[in-house]
Amino acid sequence: MPLASMRAWLAPRPIAHYALLLLCVLVVSLGVLASFVFNDATRLRDRIAQTDQTLAHQELEEAVSLLSRHARDAAAALTQWDEARQQLDNPIYYGYWRNSRALAAGVLPEGMVAVDLYDLQGRNLSAFPEKEASMPPQIDPQDLSSFLQRESGRHYLYFFFPFHQDAGKKYLSGYAGLKFDFERELRQLRTFRYLDLSSLHLEAGDGVRIPVDTLVSAMRFESTGNPETRELEVLVTRSFYEIALIIAAISLIGYVALVYVVAKPLRRLSSHIDSMRRGRSQGQLLDDSYRGMLAVTELENVRHSLNDYQHQLDDMHVSLAHKNKELWTLAHQDPLTGIFNRRAFDDDWRAMLRSHRDTPQGVAFLLFDCDHFKPINDTYGHQVGDRVIEGLALSLGGALRAGDRLYRLGGDEFATVLFATDPERARQVAERCVEDVLRYDFNAYGVKEPVRVSVGIACVEEADASVDGLQHLHRQADIAMYYAKRPGQGKIAVYSEEMGEGLEAVVSSAETSAVYEAMSDPSRLEMHYQPVLDLSTSRFDYYEALVRIRGEQGLVMPSSIFPVVELRGLECEFDLAVLERVRADLEAGLVPDGAGVSLNVSGPGIVSQRVNDALMQFAPLLITHKLVLEVTETSLITQIAQASANLARLRKAGFIIALDDFGSGYSSLRYLSSMPVDLVKFDISMVRSLEESGRQAVFVEDLARMIKDAGYRLVAEGIESESLLAKVRQLGFSHAQGFHIGRPAALSRHPEPQRASV
Amino acid sequence: MIWTPLPLLAVVALLVLSAPAFARAGGEVEAKLPSGMVVGASYHPGRKQLPAVLILHGFLQTRDFPTVASTMDALASGGYTVLAPTLSLGVSRRNKSLPCEALHLHTLEEDAEEIAFWVRWLMSKGHSRITLIGHSYGNLQLLAYLGRNPSPVVKQLLMISLTDVEAKQSAAQRARFAQALRERVARGDTRLAEIEFGHCKKYVSPPASLLSYMSISRQRILDAVAQSPVPARVIMGSLDDRMGVGWVEHLQGRGIAVSVIPGASHFFDNQFEFDLHEVVLQTVTGR
């Protein structure tokens, strides 16, 4: 047998199969035993039948002998009968005697079929022997032997004897013949115990005479069997059947008992263990039977052990559930603020997406971001930063509706999702949040500057609610939030399609990839230079280096680059890449000697040691080129001391410091006065107001004069007309910049400074 | 005449008690009739000075019939020579009573002839005085013998329970039977006749044989007794129901001596056989 087949054959099987096998073995054993018993019984029956046949043979011999004696007695009675003698003497009325008297007178035994008398010559005294009697019409006085003869299927025994007139048998009167119905006579003569008289028959045909002395051997017969032996045989057979039946019944009961007492509980145990293994039992215990316990002690012990084990497992399960809950809490709770973290947000978001398919409803995604948190963190340290984060979480959480969840997605970014709402209500919640943050006392942590949050809101109306729409909410809220962070946007913005045009890059993976690739490979940066006109000489004094990134879809403009940089906190790294690229241009001689270059450095870059070190590497170029560092006033606010120190050191090294976008932010004159600044670049919005009549133009004119008078040189951005150029020139601006003067372009395309046409 | 048994009771009882010794002295005799038929009788020789007694059995019976046998024994015990033949009735060596249904080939004449044979047989034995005793129908056969030239040695006739043939069938019936038989005989019709005859419901016999017995009638009986050549006496039982009412009176009316034993039946069985024996002995001795 192959090994695999043998293993399959020896594989475990249900106990019911073994019980069935045991039952089958019992049945087969009973069958074999029954065959043995039947064989023995058959042999015994054959022996008994043989004995019975012998006894039947003996019985028949005895019966024939008795019948012969009986016939002789009848013959004796006949010869002593007066009427018979009378017939031999005077047979004139023999017919009457034979037919009316011979058998009816009571002299001869009953059952005799016929009797006839013969004269001395052996002639039947009957006038018509062939009609009246079935006795031979003629006998041979010399041969009076008796014989058996079959006639019409019945056997008749004939006896013939001489008829003497006297007791001394001296006077022979004639002969007599008696005829017996063999079977009837035998039946009347005796009771046969072994011989079946009904089976008695003669092989020879009708009319053949069988002498009495050979009669028994000529007869064919069957034995009835010994009744006691037959009864014993029947008793043995019946007993065997009864025993077999009892054994079969016991086996069946045993099988059923085994199935119910062992197999079924075992199957239940097995099924229960299997359920436990598959985690389907759900803490259910294996119940007992109606008796309160299993019938088999070992199985009951197993059940108890299993239930105890189940109890222990349940306890462990409860413990694990607690642990899991704690773990879930740890995994889903922000350890600093105690509110839900990014993981919880992701889980809830996925759950919301699933449930939203069934019950769509209006959803608003609110994204909170702390303004200038990094400078605060850098200025006051991480501990204060953490306190600010805690304060933000407390104030935002307090402003939300009961049941709304506040998530800290990371750093200073928080989010909440409002259900069954619309943009207006979402805005109200956002305004409450902004106000609560403003009211929160961050001064308690030592933070002097006001802490604000910008809120980006993205909504999906119930009518438009779809899973696809929900999946874009986060990105849209991101865009709205950055929109809100723009100066003058009121800190709260609800996403609209128009926002996506400018801030799409913030969340665009293409722009983000371009930024990261440019940082890793600054050669991908493409610097466009916009000339800045010295109004006193009408020559291009220097060029402002404006960065673009060469991407697969064309140039990525600063409006797409810087939101990504700021969102990702990549200011320093991006500054370093730009500086490297500009330095390469300078070193490559793309910028003609004598012409200057202005470099835009981010707030974080100003306070960054690495950026400062990179700037210091420009020092050798200061010999041939004028280098201007443009920094925004907002970038200086948070770490103004460090920024001032670094700027002072760079200024000392030869860099000219320009305050960029003056007028777009706080425009605090206190800050201006405290910072080492050489040039003040009026924001384009302020310059454009000069062309308008009104208070703002006056205010800008006065501001320009005041700053100029304070010793600063002024640069006007956004000069797009000659009149505006004339205006700034009139106000005393020293430099002007704008499309009217020159568009940003690769440096080779700019005219020589000396050949400026403006 | 009503006879009272008391005076002789003791004597008869003594004789009966001693009977076996005498009976054992008797024997069976056989004789061959001229017809070749072998007949038998019980023969008890007695004292020569006493008359020999021939006692004949009743209808179809044998000498072994109890009434006959006991009377024979009583007589033998009394020292009488007693011969009790068995009529052959057409059967050689007949030793059993003949059933009614048996084939009856005998005739009344043959019966009388056999009686005559036995009377001669007694005479051959040296008996010169013979008393005939009959029982029932045997009396009619004895009367038939006496009516046919009886032997002179016959001195006395004693008839026990004399039969009245018309007790069962009336004279008219018997006349019709007889007429029918005569017609058959006249036609030569030998087929067996089956009629009620005597006490037999079915009596089978050839017409001629049966017709011989039809010659007997009540009147002829009374005449035969009354005209008997020898003294005749009749012994009847008062309770003999086989006879018609007034039979005894008929007999007595004809001057026939009748002894009636009170309480006895036709067969004088039980204790009445002693009464019978006493009367018989008394009659035979002539006391």
Total separate domains of chain A: 4
What distance separates the N and C termini of chain B? Answer: 15 Å
Secondary-structure element order of chain B, N to C: HHEEEHEHEHEHEEHHEHEH
- Largest sheet descriptor of chain A: 8 strands, mixed, barrel
Say what oligomer this is: heterodimer
User: In order across it, which strands form the biggest sheet of chain A?
Assistant: 13-14-16-17-18-19-20-21
Describe it.
- The complex is a heterodimer of chains A (758) and B (287).
- With 758 residues, chain A is α/β, with parallel strands linked by helices.
- Chain A contains 26 helices and 21 strands.
- Helices cover 51% and strands 18% of the residues of chain A.
- Chain A has an eight-stranded mixed beta barrel with strand order 13-14-16-17-18-19-20-21, surrounded by five helices.
- In chain A, α23 (669-674) links the parallel β18 and β19.
- In chain A, α11 packs across α12.
- The relative contact order of chain A is 0.05.
- Chain B has helices at residues 6-17, 19-23, 66-77, 108-124, 138-146, 171-187, 207-213, 218-226, 247-253, 272-285; strands at residues 27-32, 38-44, 52-56, 82-86, 130-135, 154-160, 193-197, 200-205, 232-237, 257-261.
- Chain B has 287 residues and is an alpha/beta fold.
- Chain B is globular and about 55 Å long.
- The interface between A and B is medium-sized, with 18 and 19 residues.
Defining key terms:
heterodimer; A: 758 residues; alpha/beta; Beta-Lactamase; 4 domains; eight-stranded mixed barrel; five-stranded antiparallel sheet; 26 helices; 21 strands; B: 287 residues; Rossmann fold; 2 domains; globular
